[in-house]
Amino acid sequence: MMFMKKERVNKFRINLGAIGREERENIFIDVEYNYIKDNKVKVGYSIGIYGCGMISYVVGYEIDVNLDEDIEEVLFDEAKRLHENGYFYSALELFYEELDYLETM
Description:
By secondary structure, the chain is α+β, with helices and mostly antiparallel strands.
């Protein structure tokens, strides 16, 4: 068995505020990324609820970046675009649907 190599992963969090089902549920987006060669960054976006932790991995892909730019600002803008297109709301709605199903069992 071959041992996998360790990678450094950078991470930051975006607070979306109290947009959860209940007023007290503050939602966040975790952004994890690491650099790969040729001006590319691997990025993954997850959504979570403060006090509960991460609830769903939303999307991950490679993105071309200019290494002269602030990478976190580029990824923040990308998260904003995904949020405007409903990616995070869809993941949140799916979580609540599964939660409702489990509560009826």
